[in-house]
Amino acid sequence: MKMSFGLCSIFLVFWLASIAYASDPSQLQDFCVAVPDAKNAVFVNGKFCKNPNMVVSDDFLFQGLNKAGNTSNNLGSVVTPVNVNQLEGLNTLGVSMARLDFAPNGINPPHTHPRATEAFLLVEGTLYVGFVTSNPADPTTQKNKLFTKYLHPGDVFVFPQGLIHFQFNVGKTNAVAFASFGSQNPGTITVANAVFGSDPKINPDVLAKAFQVEKNIIDYLQAQFCRKGYGGKSFFHCTGMPIKASADKLTREIEKFGYPPVFPVVKDEEIAVPEAKPEDENEGGQNQAGGKFKGLIHFQFNVGKTNAVAFASFGSQNPGTITVANAVFGSDPKINPDVLAKAFQVEKNIIDYLQAQFWSNYN
Ligand SMILES: *[C@@H]1O[C@H](CO)[C@@H](O)[C@H](O)[C@H]1NC(C)=O
User: Fold this and answer.
1) Buried b (16+ CB within 10 A) or exposed e, 61-86
2) What PANTHER family does UniProt report for this protein, alphabetically (predicted)?
3) Which pLDDT belongs to residue 262?
4) How far apart are CA 310 and CA 312, in angstroms?
């Protein structure tokens, strides 16, 4: 059977429309409870669906969000998620939530949710919260803008989809909050972990150039996540350099350069910077196309002896760009150095030094 060109076009349009959704698609039935085993299930968007005849009330129930999480960790905070991974009945329904507990001085460090806007309700304590906009249209005269607020019980604050945000307990008591997300699975990218704690490590040359500092500072930052890890996981380490060698190197550098280390400032000309795109992106090398997933932090670095040229296509008329270094260390106004020192697990002087790199041109 010969298909008409018109019919082909219609199919193509539908196919493109189906892959161009930038948020959870509308639900296709009353419910679609997730099952861990794919056998005898039908795949829709999200997880496999349980046979509706087998669905029970408990599939729609999660218990225990009245209980405080354990905040005994490096950050003094803990998130108890209730998304499709904990509550199967949320599958395809496009919402989820979480409880957040903060000890005094506890922080939920700068992070993004690539797939969801977050509405955040504080019920107990006092939090300092904020988010940073994506890169401005004219970066020569504008910076990534920081919006902050002190929250008190009953306050609701919104963190727009894909933007870097944080919460910091500035009160003398514990703080408790509940967050709602416009996705069954919002995802979380913690900036410090993704940039300085990835496994394997991002090449320090790339990060030194991106953050406009010397490689030793990057080694120092990476060492924080390789030695201590996050959330008290002391077993965590990064591949590339054994823990002891990394610690020894740090000790030598502290002896050589002081603590925190102080180096002369060297400005670089061409910069490959880690950045996150809120929308889809497909990119090509020479005659090669490489796909990138929505919202993930990525970078490109010219390691050749010649110029490199690339073309990128985005699944949006305005994909937006968040350059991590600029958004975190170069926002206007600056993010409180106490917040960043705790988030990056380093002393405030290191944060001052990093912020200075992005402010020297403006002051
Ligand atoms: C909280 O976590 C810490 C560190 O993992 C642990 O030592 C402590 O026993 C935990 N407390 C409770 C009440 O579970």
Assistant:
1) ebeeeeeebebebbbbbbebbbbbee
2) GERMIN-LIKE PROTEIN SUBFAMILY 3 MEMBER 3
3) 53
4) 7
Helical (H) or strand (E) element with 322 = strand 322-323
Per-residue pLDDT tens over the stretch 125-184? 999 999 999 999 888 888 899 999 999 999 999 999 999 999 999 999 999 999 999 999
In the block, residue with structure tokens 């997880």: 47
Residue 72 CB–ligand 1 contact under 6 Å? yes
Residue type, 176: V
Structural domain total, the chain: 2
Which of 67, 71, 72, 236 is the pocket-test mutation for ligand 1 (most atoms within 8 Å of CB)?
A: 72
Within its chain, how far is the Cα of 95 from the centroid? 19
> How would you class 99 by CB atoms within 10 Å of its CB: exposed for 0-12, middle for 13-18, buried for 19 or more?
buried
Which residue range(s) make up the domain with 217? 194-280+309-357
Distance, in Å, from the CA atom of 115 to the CA atom of 159, rounded to the nearest integer, reads 12
Same domain, 104 and 246: no
175-201 as b/e, with b when 16 or more CB fall inside 10 Å?
bbbbbbbbbbbbbbbbbbbbbbbeeeb
Whether the predicted pLDDT of 84 surpasses 90: yes
Residues 338, 220 within the same domain: yes
